[in-house]
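Q: what sequence does this backbone want?
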């Protein structure tokens, strides 16, 4: 398959999921219907609560999920800039595996931080951790950072244009 189709497929998936978030938010604000928004919160947001309740798929689905346009835009700009070089270096299948693996690793790191590190830091500072276990994280930042790190390490002598 053409590597551009793979890259644009990942970008398109992120954009489509952003569209569903916007639909859910709008539907809730305009009509008071929480159905779509609740579905997105349960299945496209990573949180310790999701992990504890067996919704492990959110470790991956949250890596394609954005609620804010600026968050989506920056992540997709970096994904497009770095993704081309990574695709050329490792091919389609490994690119998708790296994107997914880095996204899951980022999600696990977030859960570990929120569940163990942050409360410990708060206690050491004499504060009570105010973290809500249902509050979650989302976005392609973990995946994008994984791709960027791979590119920086594996292709360190290669010049690539980066859109700014």
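A:
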């Amino acid at each position: 398959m053409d590597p551009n189709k793979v890259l644009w497929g990942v970008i398109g998936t992120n954009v489509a999921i952003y569209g569903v978030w916007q639909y859910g938010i709008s539907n809730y604000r305009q009509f008071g219907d929480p159905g779509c928004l609740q579905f997105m919160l349960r299945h496209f947001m990573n949180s310790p609560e999701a992990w504890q309740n067996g919704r492990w798929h959110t470790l991956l689905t949250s890596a394609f999920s954005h609620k804010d346009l600026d968050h989506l835009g920056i992540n997709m700009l970096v994904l497009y800039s770095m993704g081309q070089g990574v695709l050329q270096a490792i091919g389609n299948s490994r690119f998708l595996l790296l994107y997914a693996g880095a996204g899951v690793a980022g999600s696990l790191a977030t859960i570990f931080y929120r569940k163990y590190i942050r409360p410990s830091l708060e206690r050491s500072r004499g504060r009570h951790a105010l973290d809500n276990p249902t509050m979650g994280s989302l976005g392609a930042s973990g995946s994008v950072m994984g791709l960027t790190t791979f590119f920086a390490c594996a292709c360190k002598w290669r010049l690539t244009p980066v859109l700014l």
